[in-house]
Write a structure and sequence with these properties.
Largest sheet of chain B: 7 strands, mixed
Helix content of chain B: 25-40%
CATH architecture of chain C: Beta Barrel
Number of strands of chain C: 9
Strand order of the largest sheet of chain C: 1-2-3-9-8-5
Radius of gyration of chain C: 14 Å
CATH topology of the largest domain in chain B: Aspartate Aminotransferase, domain 2
Largest sheet of chain C: 6 strands, antiparallel
Radius of gyration of chain B: 25 Å
Order of helices and strands of chain C: EEEHEEEEEHHEH
CATH class of chain C: Mainly Beta
Distance between the termini of chain C: 16 Å
Structural class of chain B: alpha/beta
Oligomer: heterotrimer
Structural class of chain C: alpha+beta
Number of domains of chain C: 1
CATH topology of chain C: OB fold (Dihydrolipoamide Acetyltransferase, E2P)
Largest interface: A-B, 207 and 200 residues
CATH architecture of the largest domain in chain B: 3-Layer(aba) Sandwich
Number of helices of chain B: 14
Number of domains of chain B: 2
Distance between the termini of chain B: 26 Å
Strand content of chain B: 5-15%
CATH superfamily of the largest domain in chain B: Type I PLP-dependent aspartate aminotransferase-like (Major domain)
Shape of chain B: globular
CATH class of the largest domain in chain B: Alpha Beta
Order of helices and strands of chain B: HHHHEHEHEHEHEHEEEEHEHEEHHH
Chains: A alpha/beta, B alpha/beta, C alpha+beta
CATH superfamily of chain C: RNA polymerase II/Efflux pump adaptor protein, barrel-sandwich hybrid domain
Strand order of the largest sheet of chain B: 1-7-6-5-4-2-3
Strand content of chain C: 25-35%
Chain lengths: 456, 487, 129
C-alpha cells in the first residue's frame, strides 16, 4: 500500500458494496479483456523515501558537483543571487498546490500575485499590459510571432540573426506549422543591421523580431528598427533574454516595440538544468485582446471590494476552441510568483544595483582578459555578457577550467557563421553576474593566462 | 479562511526600504559603462520598496486567500488534483539538480541526463509507446507537437493534402486549438447517445483529407471508449493517425496502455497523472510519446544512452524541431521520476484502481440527487447534469459556489460542453473515505438547500475572502495592472 | 421582443437595412436578449471586404463568443465606435445601434434573407425550443 492512498481494505469493501460491484476489476469492465494488461508493468518495486533518497543521491553525484562550479556561463540561463525568502514563500502549499485560479473567491492569493507580476512586467518592458506568463522566453517569442501574424493577416516574418539560436529554432518550429515564411535580418558589427532591414520589409511582413541584449551580449538599438518596421505597418517584437538588463536599459516599449517577450529566469528562478523557467509577454494596448495566455484583471466583488479574476477569457481555448488566440492553457504560475517576490524584495533600487554590479564586474573581467591579450570579438556596448577570442579552442579551455572548478563561457563556434562571421573555435561568450566576486574573476584570468603561456 | 487582506505590494512601498541587500561589489569603479545615452532607461520601473518582513508578510497573507490541495479536497474533473508528495519537492530542490546550468558539458550532467532517460523509458513502458520526448512544457504544447508530427508523417508519405483533424464535441478545448495552431482545419463530430465516439459520424467524417483523430480515453465524461480498437482500425484504415490526449491516463495506469489500443502519438501531463504540483497554473510538463516509426519526428533534443553514457540526441532532419529552450521542464520531470520510482508498478496500478473506486463511490452515492446523464461504471471521473429535481433559478454555478462555503473546492463546471449543466467530479485516489463521505454529505445538503433555502446557493460563497466577483466589469474595461494614481 | 418591419434578417440574428447602394447591419433584439450581458464587441476595420456569410466580427459575453455573419457582400464604410466603447448600447436598443455600414458589392437582392414575418416565425420557434 503506498503512503498516498488512504483507502484500507475494509474501506474498499464498503465502497464496492455501495457501488454494487464485486471487485475493483469489475469497475474496469468497459475495457475490453484483450486490452487489459495481464502482468505487472516492468518498473521495479516500490521504493520508500529512504531508499529513493539513497538512489537519487547516488545519481546526483554523477553530476560531479556541477552546482558548486563558479559560473561564467550565461547564454540564456543566468546564475544570479536568489534571496532566501523566495523559497519559503513559494513553498507555501496554498500557492504551489493550488490549481489555475478558475474560482476567484478562493484564489485571490494567486490572482493578486499575478496581477502584481503583470504590473511589474508591463512597467519594466514599458508596455500597457502583460499576461500572466508563458512557458519560457523562446516559446513566448514564437507565440508573439503568431500573434503578429493573426493581427496583421500577413504571413512573412523577419528575425534578426542575433536572436538566441534556440529561440530562432522554436520560432521555426511554430512557423513551419503555421505556414509562416521566415527570413533572416543580417548583422553588422554583431548587431541587427537596421539599414538592411528596410530592403527586407514588404507589405507581407507581419513582424520584425530582434533581441536586446542580443545573443552575443551586445545592446541593440531597438528604436532604429522601429521606423522602417512601422512604415510598412508591421509589428516590432522585442525579445529580452535577461530582463535584469531592463533596470538600466531603455524599455522596449519606449523604443517603439509593439510586443515585448522574454525569459524571466533571472528573476529568482534557479538554473534547474534549463527548466522550468518563466516566459513573459507584454504589449501595447491595441493588442491587448489579441494576446495569448491567461490574464488577470481587477474588478469588484458583490460587496464592492477590490477583487481579482481571470479575464478576457474569450480569447482562450476553453471558450473559443479552434479560434482561440493560442492553445496555451497554463502559465508558469509558480515562477511568476517567484518573479513577483524577487522584484518586491529587490525593489527598483536593488534591481538597479544588481544590474550595475553585473555590468561593473563584466567590464572588470573584460578589461583583465584584454590585458592578457584576450580581445573582445565586437566593439559595441554590452550589458553583462561579452564575446572574446580565446588563445585556443574554447571547448578545450573549458575542460581545463572545469577541472579547476570553473564553468567557462559558451563556445560560439557554431553560432558565428550564421551571424555572418567566420567560424572560430576560439570564440566564447562570457557572462558575469552580480553573484561573481573579484577573486573568482582574478582566478579565471590567471588560469587563462597560465594556459596561454603554456600553450604558446 | 482569513479575513480579506486587500493591499497590493505597491501600496506598502516607501522610499529607502529594501528587502534584499546585495554584497559590496568589491570592484573599484573603473569608469563609465560605455553605453550611449539613448540606450539607457529614462523612466524608473514601477517596483515596490519594502523590507523583507513586509514582503514575507504580504505574500504569506496572500497565500491565505488561496485554497490549496493540502488544505482540502479539490475534486476538479479533468484536472486531476491528486496529492503532491513532499519528497518530490525536496528532490527537485537538491542543489545537485536545481543548480545545474543547461549548457553544462554533458559529462558533468550525467545524473540529470540519466533521470531524463529513465523517465522516457518508464513513460514508454506505462503507455506502450516506443519513445518519449520530454521537451513539451505542458500538455497543450505536447498536443501541438504531436500534431506537428502528424503533419510531418503525412508529408513524408506524400500525403500533405491531409489537412483535417477530427475531434469529438466532448474534447478538451486545447484539442481544436492545438490543431488550428498546427495549421489544421478542425472537424468536430457529435458524440453518440452513450457519450462515446459516434462511429457512424466518425465514418462519415473520415476521408483522404483527414490527418487523424484526437481522443481522450477515458473520455472527458469519464467513460472508457469500449470500441477503441474498432475506432483505431477505422482511422488507420482511412490513412489517418490516432492521437491520445493523456489528460486521463491516471485512470488506467497498469491496467491498459494507449499503445496497445492503437494510439500512435500521445502526451502525458506530469502535473495530473504523475503528481507534480499545479503551482496555481504551472509549471507543468507534457512529455510526448510515439510509436517506433515516428521516433524520427520527435521534437529535439531527446536523451539517448550509449554504453554507460547519457547524452542529448538532437535527432535528424525529420525532427519537427525545438519547442522551447533547453530540454524540457527538468525540475518537474524529476518530480515525476520520483513519483514513479516511489510507487513502482503495483503502486501505479493501485493509484488508478482507487481513483476509479472513489469516483464510482461518489457517483453512486449522489446519483439520486443529481442528474446522471450517462449511467454506467465510470473511470476516474464522472459528470452530473445539475440537480435531479430542478430547483427554479438555481444554476450549476450556484451549487459550485455553495461548496466553497462548505469547505470544498468546486468541481469543474460547464465542461464538457455537451452536458449543459455539467458538474464534473474527480476525487482522485488520494482522498480518504472520510473526506469522500464529507463531500457527499455537502452535496446532499446543497441538494436539499436548493429547494428549501435557494438563496444560500445563489448568494454563495459567503465565507470566502471575497464574494462573487464581477467578471463582466473585468472584461468590459480591463484593468490589467496597478497604477499609481489609484491610491 | 422587438422586430422591425422593412428590415431583412439572417438566421444568425443580424438585421440589415438597405438604403440604395449602402446597407446598415446590426444584431436583433432577440440576439441581444439571448447573449445576456455583453462585455465586448469586435468590429472590422473600415475598408474590409466581406462576402455574404463571412464572419465580420464577434460579440463577447464573459464566457461566450458569438460570431457576426455578413448578410450581404460588401465593403465596410463605417463602424459604430460608440458600441465598441459601450456595448450596453446594444442592450438598450439593438435596432437603434447599428454595428457597421457597408457599400454593397452587388445590387441588393434578398436571396436567402428573411423578412420580418419570416424572422418572427424563426424567433418564435427558437424560443419555443
Amino acid at each position: 500500500m503506498s503512503a498516498y492512498v488512504p483507502n484500507t481494505r475494509s474501506d474498499r469493501e464498503h465502497m464496492l458494496d455501495v457501488i454494487g460491484a464485486a471487485s475493483l476489476d469489475e469497475l474496469y469492465r468497459d475495457i475490453p479483456a484483450g486490452l487489459r494488461l495481464k502482468g505487472d508493468l516492468t518498473l521495479g518495486k516500490p521504493l520508500s523515501e529512504a531508499e529513493l533518497y539513497r538512489e537519487l543521491g547516488a545519481i546526483a553525484e554523477k553530476n560531479t558537483g556541477a552546482e558548486r562550479l563558479v559560473c561564467f556561463l550565461g547564454a540564456g540561463a543566468y546564475d544570479r543571487l536568489i534571496p532566501s525568502a523566495i523559497k519559503y514563500l513559494t513553498s507555501r502549499s496554498e500557492f504551489y498546490t493550488a490549481y489555475t485560479p478558475y474560482q476567484p473567491e478562493i484564489s485571490q492569493g494567486t490572482l493578486q500575485a499575478i496581477f502584481e507580476f503583470q504590473t511589474m512586467i508591463a512597467s519594466l518592458t514599458g508596455m500597457d499590459a502583460a499576461n500572466a506568463s508563458m512557458y519560457d522566453g523562446a516559446s513566448a517569442c514564437a507565440e508573439a510571432v503568431l500573434t503578429a501574424v493573426r493581427h496583421t493577416g500577413r504571413r512573412a516574418v523577419l528575425v534578426s540573426r542575433a536572436v538566441h539560436p534556440e529561440t530562432r529554432e522554436v520560432i521555426e518550429t511554430y512557423a513551419r506549422a503555421g505556414g509562416i515564411a521566415l527570413s533572416d535580418i543580417p548583422l553588422k558589427d554583431g548587431v541587427t543591421d537596421a539599414a538592411a532591414l528596410s530592403s527586407l520589409l514588404s507589405d507581407d511582413t507581419a513582424c520584425v523580431v530582434a533581441q536586446s541584449p542580443n545573443f552575443f551580449g551586445l545592446i541593440e538599438d531597438i528604436s532604429a528598427l522601429e521606423g522602417p518596421t512601422h512604415a510598412r505597418k508591421a509589428l516590432l517584437v522585442a525579445c529580452v533574454t535577461d530582463p535584469l538588463s531592463l533596470a538600466v536599459l531603455e524599455s522596449p516599449g519606449r523604443q517603439g516595440a509593439d510586443i515585448a517577450v522574454g525569459e524571466g529566469q533571472s528573476f529568482g528562478t534557479a538554473l534547474n538544468y534549463g527548466g522550468p523557467y518563466l516566459g513573459f509577454m507584454a504589449a501595447k494596448a491595441p493588442l491587448m485582446r489579441k494576446l495569448p495566455g491567461r490574464m488577470v484583471g481587477q474588478t469588484l466583488d458583490l460587496e464592492g471590494r477590490r477583487a481579482f479574476t481571470l479575464t478576457l477569457q474569450t480569447r482562450e481555448q476553453h471558450i473559443r476552441r479552434e479560434k482561440a488566440t493560442s492553445n496555451i492553457c497554463s502559465n508558469q504560475g509558480l515562477n511568476a510568483l517567484t518573479a513577483a517576490i524577487y522584484l518586491s524584495l529587490l525593489g527598483g533600487e536593488g534591481l538597479r544595483e544588481a544590474a550595475e554590479q553585473s555590468m561593473k564586474k563584466a567590464r572588470y573581467l573584460q578589461k583583465r582578459l584584454e590585458r592578457i591579450g584576450i580581445k573582445p570579438l565586437f566593439d559595441g556596448p554590452f550589458f553583462d555578457e561579452f564575446a572574446v577570442k580565446l588563445p585556443a579552442d574554447a571547448r578545450e579551455a573549458n575542460e581545463m577550467l572545469l577541472r579547476n572548478g570553473i564553468l567557462g563561457g559558451y563556445p560560439l563556434a557554431d553560432a558565428l557563421p550564421g551571424a555572418g562571421y567566420p567560424a572560430d573555435d576560439r570564440a566564447a561568450l562570457f557572462c558575469v553576474t552580480e553573484k561573481r566576486t573579484k577573486e573568482e574573476m582574478d582566478r579565471l584570468v590567471s588560469l587563462l593566462a597560465e594556459r596561454k603561456g603554456a600553450g604558446k | 479562511m482569513s479575513r480579506h487582506y486587500d493591499k497590493l505590494i505597491f501600496e506598502l512601498s516607501s522610499e529607502g526600504k529594501t528587502g534584499y541587500r546585495l554584497p559590496a561589489s568589491g570592484i573599484e569603479d573603473e569608469g563609465p559603462y560605455g553605453i550611449p545615452e539613448k540606450l539607457l532607461r529614462t523612466e524608473a520601473p514601477l517596483l515596490p520598496q519594502v523590507s523583507e518582513p513586509e514582503a514575507v508578510r504580504h505574500y504569506t497573507r496572500l497565500s491565505r486567500e488561496n485554497y490549496g490541495l493540502d488544505g482540502g479536497m479539490y475534486p476538479l474533473g479533468s484536472c486531476t488534483m491528486k496529492y503532491n508528495p513532499k519528497f518530490n519537492e525536496d528532490a527537485a530542490a537538491m542543489p545537485a539538480f536545481s543548480g545545474l546550468h543547461p549548457y553544462l558539458p554533458e559529462a558533468a550532467a550525467q545524473g540529470a541526463l540519466r533521470i531524463m532517460y529513465e523517465l522516457d523509458r518508464m513513460l514508454s513502458e506505462i503507455t506502450g509507446m516506443a519513445k518519449f520526448s520530454l521537451q513539451p512544457a505542458a500538455g497543450a504544447q505536447g498536443e501541438l507537437a504531436g500534431l506537428m508530427i502528424f503533419k510531418a508523417w503525412h508529408e513524408s508519405r506524400g500525403e500533405g493534402r491531409r489537412r483535417r483533424i477530427i475531434v469529438p464535441d466532448s474534447s478538451h478545448g486545447t484539442n481544436p486549438a492545438s490543431a488550428a495552431e498546427a495549421g489544421f482545419e478542425v472537424v468536430q463530430i457529435a458524440s453518440a447517445k452513450d457519450g462515446t465516439v459516434d462511429k457512424a459520424a466518425l465514418g462519415a467524417a473520415l476521408n483522404e483529407d483527414v490527418a487523424g483523430l484526437m481522443l481522450t480515453n477515458p473520455n472527458t465524461l469519464g467513460l472508457f471508449e469500449r470500441d477503441i480498437l474498432r475506432i483505431a482500425e477505422m482511422v488507420h484504415g482511412a490513412g489517418g493517425l490516432l492521437y491520445y490526449d493523456g489528460a486521463n491516463m491516471n485512470a488506467i495506469m497498469g491496467v491498459a496502455r494507449p499503445g496497445d489500443m492503437g494510439f500512435d502519438v500521445i502526451h502525458l501531463n506530469m502535473h495530473k497523472t504523475f503528481s507534480t504540483p499545479h503551482g496555481g497554473g504551472g509549471p507543468g510538463a507534457g512529455p510526448l510519446g510515439v510509436r517506433e516509426d515516428l521516433i524520427r519526428f520527435l521534437p529535439r533534443p531527446t536523451v539517448a544512452k550509449r554504453g554507460d553514457v547519457y547524452g542529448l540526441d538532437f535527432g535528424g532532419a525529420e525532427s519537427i524541431g525545438r519547442l522551447k529552450s533547453f530540454y524540457g521542464n527538468f525540475g518537474v520531470l524529476l518530480k515525476a521520476w520520483c513519483y514513479i520510482k516511489m510507487l513502482g508498478a503495483e503502486g501505479l496500478k493501485e493509484a488508478s484502481q482507487n481513483a476509479v473506486l472513489n469516483a464510482n463511490y461518489i457517483k453512486e452515492s449522489l446519483k439520486g440527487l443529481y442528474k446522471l446523464p450517462y449511467d454506467r461504471p465510470c473511470m476516474h471521473e464522472f459528470v452530473f447534469d445539475g440537480l435531479a429535481s430542478g430547483a427554479p433559478g438555481v444554476k450549476t454555478l450556484d451549487v459550485a459556489k455553495r461548496l466553497i462555503d462548505l469547505g470544498f473546492h468546486p468541481p469543474t463546471v460547464y465542461f464538457p460542453l455537451i452536458v449543459e449543466n455539467a458538474l464534473m467530479i474527480e476525487p482522485t485516489e488520494t482522498e480518504s473515505l472520510a473526506d469522500l463521505d464529507a463531500f457527499i454529505a455537502a452535496m446532499e445538503r446543497i441538494a436539499r438547500e436548493a429547494t428549501a433555502a435557494p438563496e444560500l446557493l445563489k448568494e454563495a460563497p459567503q465565507s470566502a475572502p471575497v464574494r462573487r466577483v464581477d467578471e463582466l466589469r473585468a472584461a468590459k474595461s480591463p484593468v490589467l495592472k496597478w497604477t499609481e494614481d489609484e491610491e | 421582443m422587438k422586430i422591425l418591419d422593412g428590415l431583412y434578417y439572417t438566421r444568425e440574428h443580424e438585421w440589415l437595412k438597405v438604403e440604395g447602394e449602402t446597407a446598415h447591419i446590426g444584431i436583433t433584439d432577440f440576439a441581444q436578449h439571448a447573449l445576456g450581458d455583453i462585455a465586448y464587441v469586435e468590429l472590422p476595420e473600415i475598408g474590409s471586404e466581406f462576402a455574404a456569410g463571412d464572419v465580420f466580427g464577434a460579440i463577447e459575453s464573459v464566457k461566450a463568443v458569438s460570431e457576426l455573419f455578413m448578410p450581404v457582400s460588401g465593403t465596410v464604410t463605417e463602424r459604430n465606435d460608440a458600441v465598441e466603447e459601450d456595448p450596453a448600447l446594444l442592450k438598450d436598443d439593438a435596432f437603434g445601434n447599428r454595428l457597421i455600414t457597408v457599400s454593397l458589392k452587388d445590387p441588393f437582392a434578398p436571396g436567402a434573407l428573411l423578412d420580418a414575418a419570416a424572422y418572427r416565425e424563426l424567433t418564435e420557434k427558437e424560443s419555443g425550443e
